Amino acid sequence: MLVALRTALTRLGAAVTAGVWRLGYGARFFGYLILHSGTAFRRFRLTMREIYFGGVLSLIIILVSGLFVGMVLALQGYETLQRYGASEALGVLVALSLVRELGPVVAGLLFASRAGSAITAEIGLMKATEQLSAMEMMAVDPVARVVAPRFWGGVISMPLLAALFSAMGIFGGYLVGVVLIGVDEGAFWSQMQAAVDVRNDILNGVIKSVVFGFAVTLIAVFEGYDAPPTAEGVSGATTRTVVTSSLAILALDFVLTALMFTGGA
Amino acid sequence: MNRSAIDLWVGVFVAIGLGALLFLALKVGNLASFSTAQTYQVEARFSNIGGLKVRAPVKSAGVVVGRVAEIRFDNESYEAVAVLTVDSSYKFPRDTSAKILTSGLLGEQYIGLEAGADARMLKDAERMRITQSAVVLENLISQFFFNKAAEGGDAKGAK
């Protein structure tokens, strides 16, 4: 009994210490990464390649999901709005929910699972196959050569993907609302334009997506760099990337929303 | 996939990404009406502003001519002071009246301006004299009850 209690307490303590240790290591890693990301910009080709793998190849999933999310929003929104005779406000509903919340958040979640996991797996495997150690042998800093381009590639891709997601979603909402259901086109756009504010809504959405881009790619490269160099370790790190970055996106979204949209109005 | 093809695709990606941002700003957010035009500010005092909020529209004859820039409480007259930013291309006479109105039954509140007949126009930092406060539902209801009660009293007295 006492022994079981003691082992449980020891395990808890070890888990807490390991968590704090990883947090500190992650913060140090972030600082080191920022200081050594000169290469990512001096040899922009490297970053370009990562924008291709993280951003361009995520286009299909982002565009298709954006379209369908917008279409579903329009269908569901119409059902509720027409009960109150406010079906013209459909454009406002679709645009505001996409630009403020769904665009950055869903694009971030998709980006984490599509690109973040790939980054972790790639860096983890490079570590497991000792490519990173080989670079160090050749006096090439693996953080500058491998990690930083992936990080900045993700940070650059993420806001663009979120904007594409929102634009595609609004187009989907237009397709269902105006073309399929027959909401008045002029009212759809003009009410949307009257309600959506460039600084308060669109700029805040872009800020959100930039923050998510930093969070997701930082978690992805850190988990890859920190992965135990075994097959099991890499698979565990990949899973952790998706779970941690999804939770980080949702938690950060709450904080950012509380900061941005509750003051003033 | 060789390097130049990657460059091309990244270029396409960045271009359509920026295009999407532009679409959001122009078509969805209507940046075009986000004018940096010249404005002037006038003050209006109300005994009650109801649910009026900063950035609410200021309309005259239904056309948006400005926005509410600031709402504060005057601790000397115990009135609400609303500062309105009006587009300089719209001039109003000095005796223009300001009313707090509601768009639709449950819509947002806005300020309606009704032009007066004075020859002099409102200038920057001037105050509108004639104002009408927001309609507060509770006051309306209590007024209605008072009237009913008064009627009831009269009816009894007549008997």
Keyphrases for this structure?
heterodimer; A: 265 residues; mainly alpha; 10 helices; 87% helix; 0% strand; globular; B: 159 residues; alpha/beta; eight-stranded mixed β-sheet; 8 strands; 30% helix
Kindly describe this structure.
The complex is a heterodimer of chains A (265) and B (159). Helices cover 87% and strands 0% of the residues of chain A. Chain A is mostly helical. Chain A has one domain (23-261). Chain A starts with a helix and ends with a helix. The model of chain A has no long low-confidence stretch (mean pLDDT 90). Chain B is an alpha/beta fold. Chain B contains 2 helices and 8 strands; from the N terminus they run αββββββββα. Chain B has helices at 3-28, 137-158; strands spanning 39-46, 57-60, 63-74, 79-87, 97-102, 109-114, 126-128, 130-132. The radius of gyration of chain B is 25 Å and the shape is elongated. Chains A and B meet through helix 3, helix 7, helix 8 and helix 9 of A and helix 1 of B.
Q: How are the SSEs placed, and which strands pair?
A:
The complex is a heterodimer of chains A (265) and B (159).
Chain A: H1 2-35, H2 38-42, H3 44-54, H4 59-81, H5 90-128, H6 131-137, H7 142-181, H8 185-195, H9 198-226, H10 231-261
Helix pairs in contact in A: 3-7, 4-5, 4-7, 5-7, 5-8, 5-9, 5-10, 7-9, 9-10
Chain B: H1 3-28, E1 39-46, E2 57-60, E3 63-74, E4 79-87, E5 97-102, E6 109-114, E7 126-128, E8 130-132, H2 137-158
Parallel strand pairs in B: 1-7, 2-6, 5-8
Antiparallel strand pairs in B: 1-4, 2-3, 3-4, 5-6
Tell me the major beta sheet of chain A: none
| Integer-rounded radius of gyration of chain B | 25 Å
Oligomer: heterodimer
Write out the strand line-up for the largest beta sheet of chain B, numbering strands in chain order: 7-1-4-3-2-6-5-8
Secondary-structure element pattern of chain A, one letter each? HHHHHHHHHH
User: How many discrete domains of chain B?
Assistant: 2
- Quote the distance from N terminus to C terminus of chain B: 101 Å
Number of strands of chain A: 0
- Gyration radius of chain A (Cα, Å) is 22 Å
Helix content of chain A: over 70%
What structural class do helix, strand and pairing data of chain B support? alpha/beta
User: Structural class, judged by helices and strands of chain A?
Assistant: mainly alpha
Provide the β-strand percentage band of chain A: under 5%
Q: Domains counted in the coordinates of chain A: how many?
A: 1
Strands of chain B, count: 8
State the share of residues found in helices of chain B, binned by percent.
Answer: 25-40%
